[in-house]
Design brief:
alpha+beta, Aminopeptidase
């Protein structure tokens, strides 16, 4: 019995250390520097051809590196953090090349004495990684709405419709913009949003998108103003694969904006996407949500599963999962899919800490 209790006590001490260094959710992204052009072009092409992860476009964030192997069609996105390589989203590769590309990546990591931890893996990735020596656990879920059948009629959307109406009555004007030409408006919203979160808050990175850089050319950004004053914005990234469409990514509003401004932008964007023939709107990944023991894979860790569920109950200081799920649920997502975290050759709190540090969650 004592041997079983020890990991739980270690996890509680680890959580206490984390929350002593953080206060609130850090939110969105930043105006980024662009990645090296050759890496960007190859990675962007691989995503368009092979990615089936709704959040795959985030792999193009500034600061990421890209791994390729001769003779294999695809790319792996990752970021170095100390002795770890934190890999994002699985191998974006042709089906026949997924396992060989992962194997090549692991050999290269071992040669450089790096440990690999992977985040935002899909179910199709989970067993692949389990078969290659990874401990794999569900970390959360992603939420998606099929636009061809979406509508705001009915009792379940009454509150949503009312919020949108309030924003419209307040004079909200929605415009699709290029961030390069509206940098001051974006900075104004970001500064007010960030100031409202507290003086020690930083901006979340890696698992969310950003504005600027070469990847901006394929995103869409909608700005909301009231009487000429920048009030809110939402950035959308392209989504590829079996459910093509758009990813609802960054969203911010100034603290004193009327209720419903973000919802109004999203309704406006949905109509734009539907008119262009998009089939899906993805609300992306939320850690510590949608947890289900039935979707754990053969190599899961009981200790990691316990710790993730502990964070789901008590981890608002790291990530406001409940708030995020409330917003996503109001759109009645018809598809909720598990997403996973994987540790090569065993899980450790050190690896979890590196992920939290690299995302600036602590």
């Amino acid at each position: 019995m004592p041997a079983r209790v020890a990991p739980v006590k270690s996890a509680e001490r680890f959580y206490a250390a984390m929350t002593s260094n953080t206060e609130l959710y850090k939110g969105g992204g930043v105006i980024s520097t662009e990645v090296r052009s050759t890496d960007f072009d190859q990675a962007a092409a691989a995503l368009g051809e092979h990615a089936d992860n709704p959040s795959a476009y985030l792999a193009l964030n500034g600061g990421n590196d890209f791994f390729t192997a001769p003779g294999l069609s695809g790319v792996i996105a990752y970021r170095a953090a100390g002795r770890y390589w934190v890999q994002f989203g699985g191998p974006f590769a042709a089906e026949a090349d997924r396992a060989p590309l992962l194997e090549a990546f692991l050999r290269t990591a071992a040669a450089q004495r790096r440990k690999v931890v992977s985040v935002q893996l899909q179910q199709s990735d989970a067993e692949l990684y389990a078969g290659h020596g990874f401990t794999v656990n569900q970390l959360g879920a992603s939420y998606s709405v099929e636009l061809t059948t979406f509508g705001l009629r009915g009792k379940k959307f009454v509150r949503l419709r009312n919020k949108v109406s309030r924003a419209q009555r307040a004079g909200l004007l929605i415009t699709e913009i290029d961030p390069a030409g509206h940098a001051e408006a974006i900075r104004t919203i970001d500064a007010k949003w960030l100031r409202s979160k507290g003086r020690h808050v930083k901006e979340l990175e890696f698992l969310v998108g950003e504005l600027g850089g070469r990847a901006q050319q394929r995103r869409r950004l909608f700005l909301g103003t009231i009487e000429g004053t920048p009030t809110c914005y939402i950035s959308y990234s392209p989504a590829y694969g079996s459910r093509p469409g758009w990813l609802h990514d960054l969203s911010r509003r100034v603290p004193d904006s009327p209720p419903g401004v973000l919802e109004a932008i999203n309704v406006h964007a949905i109509e734009q996407f539907r008119q262009a023939g998009a089939g899906w709107l993805h609300f992306g990944f939320t850690p510590f949500s949608g947890l289900d023991p039935e979707v754990e894979v053969s190599s899961s860790s009981g200790m990691v599963a316990w710790f993730i569920r502990f964070l789901a109950k008590h981890g608002d200081a790291i990530y406001p999962a409940k708030t995020q799920v409330e917003y996503k649920s109001k759109w009645n997502p018809g598809v909720v899919l598990p997403e996973y975290i994987a540790f090569h050759k065993g899980a450790s709190f050190g690896a979890i800490w590196k992920i939290l540090r690299i995302t600036k969650s602590v």
